[in-house]
Structure formats: structure tokens, C-alpha cells
Amino acid sequence: MGSQSVRFVGLPPPVLTALLAGELAAARELVGVELGELFVSDAAKWLWDFRLRQLASDPAAAAWIVRAVVAEPRGEVIGYAGFHGPPDEQGMVEVGYTVDPAYRRRGFATAILGALLERAAGEPGVQVVRASISPENVASLATVAKYGFVQVGDQWDDEDGLELLFERPAGFTLAQVEEIHERLGSASTPAAYLGALRAVGVWSSDSYLADGRTTYFGADGLAVTTEPAHEVFEVAATSDQVAVVELLEQVAAGGVSYVDMSRGLAELGVEKWTFDTEALTITYYDRAGRALLAEQV
């Protein structure tokens, strides 16, 4: 999701200690990246103190907690992020991230959260990912919504005040789905495409012809949705099943772009198509929800 790419760089205790003391140059030398003034702000120092005390009581937390975030390929440090600690008894981890104000509104928060979710998805002990967000933080609320988080409650934090609690299953991420789509999402490889989606936990998907949005569904209500893929097309009120079959045959033969296919199907009254990764089927529906065509792949 999004076009930004990030990597994480660990902040071991000597780096956190230097940052807590305001020794930015020493911390930069220790960690090997150009940490910014954000890392010696009052809010950051509070976090470094908290994490150092956490590590003193639970050294195993080092594998999970805060890291510097580096934007690729330019190598700029754009913030810090991590989990609050290892998974608890229920397999829950909580994410936290801060983007340097100079780099906000560029898609970095989305990239950071996606990277954290990929880490969580690869950990057998993680079942649920949580995020706690101020109700006034509109940008973060929008970011977690992109990744299928749902509100499960709220809490009062002594430092941050009222926070809304959001959770989602640890399953697949949109970045994983988009990588599979880039690699296998052509008309010539539908079975391999659906098999790869199933392997990461996608059970089904709905793709809408009006704007190219796709929602992918998994276990325990997990659902993530892409951004629109093209301009808005009006879906015809009546459908033409024969013409739909003919257009899909042209797509299978090659030479029809995704956008042209979407436009053509919308004009023929197709509102969406649905993948079932277990049954290996693709079903096309009209605006009334009637199945026009079901194909086995």
C-alpha cells in the first residue's frame, strides 16, 4: 500500500542512553544513521527512559521495541517505530510509530504500519495487532482504517489522555497481496495467483469495476482494501451476459488492458467480481447482486 519503502534500524541500550542524555552526535555514531532532532525531543526522551526501564526488567523485549525508521533508497531517518513489547498471553502486540514532522503527509506512516504488520504476520506467537490512537489524530485514524483495524474500545492514558483502541488479526497485509498481484496477477496465471493469495491467508476478494478498488478477506473478519485503481466508470443498470463472456475471452487472449477491461465490464453491467481462493472460482455480479458468470480457474 503506497509508494514509500522503509527499513528499521535497532536502537540498543547504549544508543537510547545517549539520546536520553541529549547526546545526539554520540547516538548517531553508535547507530550508524543520521538521527534527527526528533530523537532528542522531550516526547522521545520520555520514551527512551521508559524503554530502558522496560529492557532492564525484560531484556527479551529488545527484539520488539522501538527502532529508527529509514526511508529507502535515500537513507533518510524519518521517525521511529516498533511494538510496545513481545506478544502477551493472548498473542497481542501493540504498534507505535512517530513520523518526523518534516516527513509527514508523504505516505510514510502507511509504509511504517505496513512493515510492522508484515513483521507481526511472520511471528507464530502473534494473533492480534493493536493500535491506540487519540480521537483527534485524524491522520492516524485514517492510516489504521486502510489496514482493516476496527475499534474495540477506548482507554485513558496518563500521558496521552483518551485513546481509541483498534485491533486486527495478525494475518496478511496489503503489501503482501500487492506483491502477489504484481508477480502473478495476470490473466495467464489465475490458479497460481489464487493459490498464492490462499497461502498468505486470503480467503476471498471483491473487486469493484466502478473505481478498481479491491477488498481482500481473511479469517476472523480481517479485511483490507486497496486504493482506487482508475477513474470512476458508471456501471450500467442492465447487463449483457453474452457480451461479458466475449470480452473476457478477449482479455484471456491478451491485448486488453486492466483499465479497458474494467471500463468494458462496467458498460456491460458488471458491478464486481469475486475470487474464492479455496474453490478457485471467479464470479461476476451485476448491480442487483445476481451472479452473471462463474468461472473455474
Automatic annotation (TrEMBL):
Name by which UniProt lists this protein: GNAT family N-acetyltransferase
Protein source organism: Kribbella sandramycini
Gene3D superfamilies according to UniProt: 3.40.630.30, YdfO-like (3.30.1810.10)
MF-aspect GO terms: protein N-terminal-serine acetyltransferase activity; protein-N-terminal-alanine acetyltransferase activity
Domain N-acetyltransferase: 14-171
InterPro entries: Acyl_CoA_acyltransferase (IPR016181), DUF1398 (IPR009833), GNAT_dom (IPR000182), Ribosomal_N-acetyltransferase (IPR051908), YdfO-like_sf (IPR036696)
PANTHER family listed in its UniProt record: N-ACETYLTRANSFERASE DOMAIN-CONTAINING PROTEIN, RIBOSOMAL-PROTEIN-SERINE ACETYLTRANSFERASE
Keywords, in A-Z order: Transferase
PROSITE patterns in the cross-refs: GNAT (PS51186)
